Amino acid sequence: MDQLLSWISAHQEMIYIVVLMIFVGIEVIGRVPSVLHTPLMSGANAIHGVVIIGAIIVMGKAEEGNIIALILGFLAVVLGTLNVVGGFVVTDRMLEMFKKKK
Amino acid sequence: MELNLLALCYLFGSISFIVGLKMLSNPASARKGNLFAAAGMTIAILGTIFLYQEHGMKLGNYGWIFGGLLLGSIVGTLMAKRVQMTSMPEMVSLFNGMGGACAALISIIEFRHLVKGNPNQAISAVGSFSGLDQTTLLIILLGLIIGAVSFAGSMIAWGKLNGKIKDFSFKGQHIANLLLFAITILMAADIVIARPEASPLFFYLIIFFSILYGVFFVLPIGGADMPVVISLLNSFTGVAAACGGFLYSNKVMLTGGILVGAAGTLLTILMCKAMNRSLKNVLIGSFGASASSAQVRAAMVGSYKEISLSDAAVVMGYANKVMIVPGYGLAVAQAQHVCHELEKTLEARGVEVKYAIHPVAGRMPGHMNVLLAEADVSYEKLLEMEIANEEFKSADVVLILGANDVVNPAAKSDPASPIYGMPILEVEEAKHVIVNKRSMKPGYAGIENQLFFQPKTSMLFGDAKKALQDLLAEIRNI
Predict the structure, then answer these.
(1) Which CATH number does B302-477 carry?
(2) Does the CB of B369 have a partner CB in chain A at under 8 Å?
């Protein structure tokens, strides 16, 4: 019990973010008209590409001689970038079409 | 100073994600919202590269980092620019899988780092970790499992949507899946709590089992349910990204990840609601089983009648109101532009034309809206299901273009049907129904549609684009 309490207090900032973001995420989506579901899914897909930051950190920390870490890290950066760039570009392409309303 | 600046970058990134998602929820501001989120992402990435430091050490390997960013950007942009609007869902699934794989790779590297950092005692000696390290291990494993499942699942979903992978299931698959999942979790728990000698071996087994689980998780799910699955996997990847945020105490990763995790989960539930099914039903009850009985029954229903192009042209050309129901067939045939032409021609003749959009028509929610928007169809003409169902009553002709399951009356009348309970477009309310299909083959859910055999329904066979072009020519002639 003590352990759990101290764990919570040690990570309270993170826990706050998690709880608040759950509510924000639900709140933001709840008002989306169904017409925009596909672009929204695609946009959210691009946003979770933020995992690229972790890949960059891992890559930047890898020691020179550690070939496996370098290769895996490189792969992670490439895949993460694909997620981010591809995601945003696809979303933009979809939304570009909504712009032309009469 | 630099770290403070980095915190500012991350703060801006987090806010841009929230504001961006919010702006995405309004057609007028959606595009700006996407760009805003992208700008926030760029700043967060650049900040990480140049400002991030751990124990006073800045990041190295710039060559590798920029090489990876460049390669990923070029390939990603090319893929996203070249993909056809009809293949959009596959693309989203593919990119989602990339994100999942990225999260899993981060976990793998960090785990290797942990093991290597303390070669003699790190993993084997119980108690050599502080409480915090246990959390680290837990987060690493969580990120790995969720990331790997999301990766494997997305790849299967991608393959299924572009037709490379067929439905596959065997008896007792759900039990096998549960077992696989349980083993994975048990091994992970064992590593975190007991840290046995064999932890590294367990770790690699977990990678393997997670991928296997992801594959088996998606394989038996029917193609019609794929949008729900992609949305679910999307939120999985969000959570995997959030694990990375925990690992590095990185607020922007945590914010973005959880935001998408929560939003994606809600979107999944909304989509299930649109089909009037529970998530459990989608994930566990695969279609195949009960479909055969429905097929047998429908086979006895009798004959359908065809309509000639000129008849169809006359019926539509002299109608007061025509409602168009687009489906996946329209997307496959790339017929959205011709469809818009038809709409304009009919309107020039004084016919009122509206589109009835079922929330799950196509392969993704909103798929039809995106497609029709591409062809310049105005936003006001697209009616959502409830409104459309009111309007059918006053419509003279309903033209169904490659839609099937979303207009299947069995969803209302036949409790044995696998789609029973799904809200549908009630096209029978109209005076006349013209169905354009390539053949009498059942739709994506694999079930027969009694609508086609009803007296007021007539069939217009052929590829949607070809049929519409011919129809257009006929209407211009009368």
Answers:
(1) 3.40.50.1220
(2) yes
